[in-house]
Design a protein that fits this description.
Two copies of one chain form a homodimer. With 250 residues, chain A is α+β, with helices and mostly antiparallel strands. In chain A, β9 and β10 form a beta hairpin. In chain A, α5 packs across α7, α5 packs antiparallel against α8 and α6 crosses α7. Chains A and B meet through β5, α4 and α6 of A and β5, α4 and α6 of B. The structure holds a DNA duplex (30 and 30 nucleotides).
Chain lengths: 250, 250
DNA sequence: CCGCGTTCCTAACACATGTAAATTCCGCAA
DNA sequence: TTGCGGAATTTACATGTGTTAGGAACGCGG
């Protein structure tokens, strides 16, 4: 069931059957389901669990006193929220659902046990943590330096490639189940300007967006237009840890 | 010698004499010194070492093909760059000196050994890693939602509090050894606008900035004006892990 | 099929911030 | 002291993006 997580981690390293079974167990624990605009956890809460997104899209966000909201990152199926969050006393941001979301609440004990017994998983989760940090840094670059069109294009490239990594793309298409207002809150742009910019990207043929279906006819072209380089996603490790034993295990 | 690192970590947990000696050893390894505008490591390089900043200011940054530069974060004395960076094959960003910098290159082996032998240090480094991630998230909020004045004010609050945590403030003053162009590259603003905004903050009396000396006469006021809440720095743990044994050790 | 709420889209205008170019200031080395 | 180079500052003007407001399209429940 945590097939998206497994797909994602296998972009970095090969997992044994036992590793995958361990992840199954982890994902089976305390499953919950919530609707869009509901929160998984709120700023100020005690972070008791590590949340694993199984289905749907969620986001980290922070709301300022005067109502302004910034979406800090998107959670896609297979994404894990801060494997060591329990070191901190309270959440400094909220995590909310953008669509209906199914997720698993993983206890500290379970996670500790699984990583102690499966070094491959530990390694893969480290990679995931580092890539998550790299994505956050790239957002800093995105918000700081890129124009609205570059910024949006960059985000769409990132989301498409991340979705592809968890098996949720169909050719050069994928879903984009968020509102333009959400995109605005993520990119630090007004919803009006998001709309203008989407029209612009549509006009140049870089994207096709109908309803919640996004198509990127020419990913390389969109990447070039957005100054997007996929290096920060660190997808260059595939097969790096392969040896004879691994092959016999799977 | 790594007194700044020790000060910082002791904001989270108390360290034993043995813990501190271990950190001394770590910081003694492979010391290097470089001048401003030189790089510690570059995008694309193989991350062989974990760098520990001992003296001076550095920054993570990323340069776009067309020359635009974004400073992604600041490194102050006592800051450590990505304790598990060696999981990745290559750097996705550069780290450069803003002032003359002294740093230590820590090998993977050393770090592994020290954390294996000192669980308190492991725990403290986890806290540091999580706070670093929280700071990066806060920058996303900063760049996405805050106006120029709020943004700059917020950065100055953050830097002041971080410097205070490593013993580098003097009353309500500290150094700010970076150019206005650097601040612009960090905040996604032009150097002209940084200058305008600094004048504005000076005009309202929220800051006094002469040369490289920054004074914040009323930190609470600057925080309020900048919508700054220190919760994301997670400084609320002090003394949390105290018990009789700890007291006898120090 | 209707009606209602949400989302999308468009327009006009305001304003925050960027750009370009000069000038002044300042620290430092000769 | 002088001269130099980088940094800070200022000005005038351009423009990207925000704001406000309203209408059109869409989806969903009754």
């Amino acid at each position: 069931m945590p097939r998206h997580l497994i797909s994602k981690l296998e972009q970095f390293t090969r997992l044994s059957v036992a590793d995958k079974q361990a992840l199954e167990t982890v994902a089976g624990e305390k499953r919950r389901r919530i609707g869009p605009r509901e929160d998984i956890i709120r700023e100020g809460d005690d972070p008791a669990y590590v949340n694993l997104i199984l289905e749907g899209w969620a986001c980290r966000y922070k709301q300022l006193e005067d109502g302004r909201r910034q979406i800090i990152s998107f959670f896609l199926p297979g994404d894990l929220c801060d494997t060591h969050i329990y070191v901190l006393r309270e959440m400094d941001h909220s995590i909310g659902a953008l669509t209906p979301v199914t997720f698993a609440e993983i206890s500290r004990e379970t996670l500790t046990r699984v990583t102690a017994e499966h070094s491959r998983i530990t390694q893969a989760l480290w990679w995931d943590t580092l890539v998550t940090a790299a994505i956050q840094r790239e957002w800093t670059v995105n918000l700081g330096q890129r124009s609205a069109a570059e910024r949006l294009g960059h985000l769409l490239c990132e989301l498409f490639i991340r979705l592809r990594g968890v098996g949720l793309t169909d050719g050069n298409s994928c879903v984009l189940p968020v509102t333009q207002a959400d995109l605005g809150d993520a990119m630090g742009l007004s919803n009006v300007h998001i709309n203008r910019t989407l029209q612009e990207l549509r006009g140049t043929g870089l994207i096709v967006l109908k309803g919640r279906q996004l198509t990127i006819p020419n990913l390389a072209a969109l990447q070039a237009a957005s100054l997007f380089s996929p290096n920060y996603l660190h997808l260059d490790h595939v097969g790096r840890h392969l040896d004879a034993n691994d092959l016999s295990e799977t």
